[in-house]
Amino acid sequence: MTDTLFAIPLVTISGEKRTLADYSAKAILVVNTASECGFTPQYKGLEQLWQAYKDRGLMILGFPCNQFGRQEKGSNQEIAAFCEVNFGVSFPLFEKIDVNGEDAHPLYVYLKKQAPGVLGSEKIKWNFTKFLLSNQGKTIERFSPTTKPEELKAKIEAILK
């Protein structure tokens, strides 16, 4: 099943085709993002995590999504520019996707099944829901939008050991 996870097609925000297998990492943090959300300042915390742990094997992958309050209306180019200019984001961003519904991206379909939310719900409730997984895809843990990136340090450290 983890082979399936690492083979899921992804497209970067600049249009390059990738899979998780393209990212050599010990830990991967997947986050659905939005530029006009109350949680948007978490970009800063995500970038700080990226800078602190990327050389030790952390990969952060941001997936813009417009399904929650239409808070990600821009084009992929506008999103990339916003993230770079306002938060100095240098971790990989991907094309805008759906995380719920019939058009949910296969990565999110997989992650939601592996790490359901509150009361077993698979549905993503809002922007900045986070999934932390090992490079083997064995450890998958889900964190709510209210969980600040800096609160994940101990969990990241445990995977990076």
Automatic annotation (TrEMBL):
<protein>
    <recommendedName>
        <fullName>Glutathione peroxidase</fullName>
    </recommendedName>
</protein>
<feature type="active site">
    <location>
        <position position="37"/>
    </location>
</feature>
<comment type="similarity">
    <text>Belongs to the glutathione peroxidase family.</text>
</comment>
<dbReference type="Pfam" id="PF00255">
    <property type="entry name" value="GSHPx"/>
</dbReference>
<keyword id="KW-0575">Peroxidase</keyword>
<dbReference type="InterPro" id="IPR036249">
    <property type="entry name" value="Thioredoxin-like_sf"/>
</dbReference>
<dbReference type="GO" id="GO:0034599">
    <property type="term" value="P:cellular response to oxidative stress"/>
</dbReference>
<keyword id="KW-0560">Oxidoreductase</keyword>
<dbReference type="InterPro" id="IPR000889">
    <property type="entry name" value="Glutathione_peroxidase"/>
</dbReference>
<dbReference type="GO" id="GO:0004601">
    <property type="term" value="F:peroxidase activity"/>
</dbReference>
<dbReference type="InterPro" id="IPR029760">
    <property type="entry name" value="GPX_CS"/>
</dbReference>
